[in-house]
From TrEMBL, chains A, B:
The keyword Nuclease does not apply. It comes from Nonomuraea roseoviolacea subsp. carminata. Pfam families: TetR_N (PF00440). This is AcrR family transcriptional regulator. Residues 34-53 bind DNA. The keyword Repressor does not apply. Keywords: DNA-binding, Transcription, Transcription regulation. Residues 215-236 are annotated as: Disordered. Residues 11-71 form the HTH tetR-type domain. The lineage of its organism: Bacteria, Bacillati, Actinomycetota, Actinomycetes, Streptosporangiales. Signal peptide: none annotated. PANTHER family: HTH-TYPE TRANSCRIPTIONAL REGULATOR BETI, HTH-TYPE TRANSCRIPTIONAL REGULATOR RUTR. It comes from the Bacteria. Residues 216-230 have a biased composition (Acidic residues).
DNA sequence: CCACAATTTTGGAGTGACTGCAAGTTGGGT
DNA sequence: ACCCAACTTGCAGTCACTCCAAAATTGTGG
């Protein structure tokens, strides 16, 4: 098991294919590059490409396994006094500091984001991956709180948290793509992370509540702009 | 514009193609039916099929426009005193009563769900549709509360609500597919809708909080089973 | 009823992802 | 050196989907 020549070659080949592919995709766009071209660039046959990667999309998106492992760790290793939401918020803010690839803050993320956004196939695969990661996080949470298999709450919590981070990442990419500077985007993200995670914690129950009594005949049903999410959930 | 012969024929053709397609898909599964077969069954050429439907998946899933309109209505027509979450909960419970198709409670929904679940292409398209519907709901909410275009909260609220209903539908389909009776599933759904929407309202902030002091050396970090989500959001 | 234009349908010839198979080629153990 | 297993390759084929130009159909004005 000393890492034979065979194993090394396999790893190298896989790597070479993946690198050539991502390079071409980033340069010319996903749909503008054929698998045959990738194969030629990596100096292998088309069949070999499909031997290593199940689909063309996987050539660009094959971090799913890593993601699942990392997220499992976040849930498992949360600190004393931390809820699951707390743990993910901390991780998100840390990632913001370190320019982690997961949330799309790293160098060149705008290009990557643009390539994904422009290809329906890649967008679809991204969603599917997110779904699977969600299921994985839900399982991790369920295991941690030792929940009944019938209990749906872990899934809900996972879904809520991941939609929050996904939302933040998406806006980050959009802003960077629109030409905003990394500094500005980071500041904005830090602020919005506070808002959104706060909303997550305290609940969205009151959002957009329509007033019981129509005001003075002025506007129909406007909301206060500043603090329209209150803690009261009682319904009359 | 008296509904000429031409328009009627077009509508009929489209309908015929769609019906034949869904029939075949439900009977034999999405991947086991080719577009050519659908075309033959509908007595048109393959090109005509693609003339009416952009992709094979759209032959099975073309309610998106309806969905968006309905959801817009739910947001717009919420009653006095109702928050957005309230409005969607009410709609969900109503749908449960009426066997509405949107959440997969109608007759034959298990078959439909199985067909979708078995095809990666259909699953992917479903996710993409859900994403677009989400964006639409977010826009509706933003418009209703007259939010700043920069404000991300409407998107978060939309995402949260729709993941809740989606979660409920998914479990409903799974249970029906597993052979549970409609009655049982409905009862379960009604109960879970209460739990999940409640969690949405009051926030998931405390979920899975790890205790500050490890208990007595018994188990490591278990949670109370009944009410592990409290209203306190303060972090120590 | 007859051109004539607009629209729809169709056939045919691609392209590109992906599969299955049979025939090489290569690495590792004997 | 020899063999087996794993890996690679070429080839033929399927299927979704596109582009284009030639019918076929429908609506319109004389």
């Amino acid at each position: 098991m000393e890492e034979g020549l065979r194993e090394r070659k396999k790893r190298e080949t896989r790597r070479r294919i993946s690198d050539m592919a991502t390079g071409l995709f980033l340069m010319r766009g996903f749909d503008q590059v054929t698998v045959a071209e990738v194969a030629r660039a990596a100096d292998v046959s088309v069949n070999t490409v499909f031997n290593y990667f199940g689909t063309k999309e996987d050539l660009f998106l094959d971090r799913q396994a890593d993601l699942e492992e990392i997220y499992r760790g976040i849930v498992r290793d949360r600190r004393p006094g931390e809820s699951v939401v707390d743990a993910f918020r901390r991780d998100f803010l840390d990632a913001l500091d370190t320019g982690d690839w997961r949330y799309g803050f790293h160098e060149g993320a705008e290009v990557w984001g643009r390539v994904v956004a422009e290809s329906t196939a890649l967008r679809a695969r991204t969603l599917e991956i997110e779904r699977q990661v969600m299921a994985c996080v839900a399982a991790a949470i369920a295991e941690e709180v030792d929940a009944d298999p019938e209990d749906v709450r872990p899934e809900l919590v996972a879904e809520q948290i991941l939609s929050t981070t996904r939302l933040l990442s998406r806006h980050a990419l959009r802003r960077r793509a629109a030409g905003e500077s990394p500094r500005e985007t980071e500041a904005w993200l830090r602020e919005q992370a506070g808002v959104l995670f706060g909303l997550l914690e305290s609940g969205v129950g009151g959002y957009g509540r329509r007033p019981l009594v129509v005001a003075e005949d002025g506007e129909a049903a406007g909301d206060e702009e500043d603090d329209d999410v209150e803690g009261d959930h009682g319904r009359p």
